[in-house]
Write a structure and sequence with these properties.
Blueprint (H helix, E strand, L loop, with lengths): L1 H19 L4 E5 L12 H14 L3 E5 L2 E5 L56 H10 L2
Antiparallel strand pairs: 1-3, 2-3
Length: about 140
């Protein structure tokens, strides 16, 4: 979560900079890694950022690896000041990992066992024969 908070801080800085230019939306590319920080799952980080921003009233669209963030208010005059994110306490990591989608079975002709031709005894070469042919370019 500490790494996600580093990314969140970068996103917050981007929002403030964009807001200072009288704009009401921005796109942020979530980095796949940060030097000096532990590796993290990009999808989990994007979900963390989405939840933090959405809870604080931002409109967020996910277009991996990008987040499109809007703080435009349509009910009254647009506000150029986004809500601060620093007062939000970090949420705990989910105790149960999210389920992965079921794998899609491949057609019989696309399976790995069909990727290489079947070898027969008379056509197969030993490792020594392959090394010799490679060295002598036969």
């Amino acid at each position: 979560m500490k790494t996600y908070d580093v990314v969140l801080k970068r996103l917050e800085n981007r929002i403030v900079q964009t807001s200072n230019m009288d704009q009401y939306e921005c796109t942020f590319q979530v980095p796949s890694f940060i030097m000096g920080e532990p590796m993290f799952a990009l999808e989990d980080c994007m979900l963390y950022l989405y939840m933090k921003l959405h809870r604080n009233g931002y409109k967020v669209q996910m277009h991996p690896p990008n987040l499109h963030v809007s703080w435009r208010r349509y009910d009254d005059a647009p506000s150029s000041t986004p809500l601060p994110l620093s007062h939000i306490a970090p949420s705990p990591a989910p105790s149960v990992p999210l389920p992965l989608p079921a794998p899609v079975p491949l057609a019989p002709d696309l399976r790995m066992e069909n990727a290489w031709p079947k070898s027969s005894k008379k056509n197969s070469l030993s490792l020594e024969d392959l090394v010799y042919r490679r060295q002598h370019e036969i």
